[in-house]
Amino acid sequence: MSSGSSQDIRGEAIHGTPRSGPGSSLVKTPAHLNSSGLRIEYAEGKGRGVYACREIPAQTLIEISPVLLFSAAEYEEHGRHTVLDHYTFVWRDGHMALALGLGSLFNHSQNPNVSYTIDPSTESINYVTSRRVIPDEELCIFYGHKLWFDPVGTTDTMPADAIEERDDGWGGLSGVADDEDDEVARGANEPFDSFADGDPSQLVPEEALPFKRLKLTPDEEEEGMDSVRTEEAWVVDLPDPRLAATMLKWLKQSGLDTLSMAHLKRIRKVDDKMSMVLILTREHPQPPAFPENIVLPPPYVLTVPKTAALTMTSLKLKSSLWPTIYAPRKRFEPEPWSRGKVRWACEAIKQVIKQAREAGDKGEIPIAAYVPVPYDEETRIATHMYEPISAHDTRTSLCHPLRHSIINLVRDVGELRASTLHPSSTPTLPSTPAFDTTSPPHQLTTAENRSVNGAHYLLTSLTLFTTHEPCIMCSMALLHSRVKEVVYMIPMEKTGGCGSLTCVPRLEGVNHRYVVNVWKDMGKEWVEQNGLEVNDACDA
């Protein structure tokens, strides 16, 4: 859009009132021929919009709009001074794009039922339903947070001079607590309102964040021999250096060449003596048996470094035990959070508290999990996450010990992803005289392949909020789901898998690590007052 947001869109029906001029008296709309079951309809106070004539399944391709491109100079000099400025997308290379067909008629919604993707290769925009659409329902997209109008039906009409470009800074969560008008709810929300005001783009210092970030890897390195972590491994001496190649080949064939040895060099030379490390004793308690055609002395146990060297000092110390790989890494550098993103997190926390309290009122264990719509638009598009997902504990009602809130949420996300990857009906393409029914099936582009492949990891790039520290089972489920970060409020000292009893993403050998943030100052009294207390031995 011409305001500078790369995904923002301006449509005709986005003003608080219809435009003046001939369009303002429009009561009849043109017929629109298509095979997707769509019609153009006029709504008082909104203008024209796109509506469903019949039920449309999720993931149905309903429109491919070609675009008319304007150069940056042409648009700056002419286009932005005309009505076109209300309909354009920002395209790459500074171009502006006018969506033709139905593309400019989709209205805005905070809870859209249509997602869109820009395709520069064909100079078009694809519109796909993100959920099931019922007959007569309006089809809407999400314009972004920088709106220059008040969506009809969401706020009182404002004077024209008071309508300006705004960003709520909350990732679309600004209204989640509108119905929380009782005193208890207000008391529960008070600790999370300190970031309600201020510039959303302002970065918040680490010490001022309302949560503490757990460090998954230590900053300090083994700089003294007494601090070097070690373990034992099987080692064999090689009387003939020519046996090294034979033994390396045998290690691969025997299955002893494991990832746990990747930080160690296989061969050590001391003067004229050559030795080879075989495998860690914890993985192979008994000495390895060599092939009959290889004559070697018996293997013996030797102490070796447990991890790679991160500094030159530790490299020297560790290599005195056994030659070690040097793998320096950056010190812990947490991702900066803006004030707007912190407000987004506060609203998500308020929502998960609400879900947990409602579950408790129904007789369930008051534990809930919540994945909001991502704060930044790039992640929303990459994850196709346009609606929040929440779940609460159902162990009591279902009499099932594994129905934890996080397991329920992961299951719900899985069902959503499954409907995305395997839609119930074939996407319906707009009819066109040039359509060739004998054409080969659509081949996925590299970007589409990445999207489909990534969808197998259910929570990739997403942030999960939960009232209580996840248990070890749930922490491992989150690891397998490739969640980006977890934010929890109440530590579970006896059962927690994200920092208390153990920290699953910190364990050695795991193939994914997610960020763990623990909300500050959630004391026992606050937990009790808000109905979130659970047995301290409960697996959350």
TrEMBL record:
Family from the record: Belongs to the cytidine and deoxycytidylate deaminase family. ADAT3 subfamily.
Can the keyword tRNA processing be found in this entry's annotation? yes
Using the record's annotation, list all stretches that form the CMP/dCMP-type deaminase domain: 343-501
Q: Which CDD domains match?
A: nucleoside_deaminase, SET_SpSet7-like
This protein's GO cellular component annotations are: cytoplasm; nucleus
**Gene3D superfamilies xrefs:** Cytidine Deaminase, domain 2, SET domain
The name under which this protein is listed is SET domain-containing protein
Q: Which GO terms describe its biological process?
A: tRNA wobble adenosine to inosine editing
Q: Name one GO molecular function term.
A: tRNA-specific adenosine-34 deaminase activity
Compositionally biased spans, kind Low complexity: 422-433
Residues forming the SET domain are 36-144
What keywords would UniProt list here?
tRNA processing
| tRNA processing among keywords | yes
List the residue ranges of the region (Disordered): 1-28, 422-441
Q: Which domain of life is it from?
A: Eukaryota
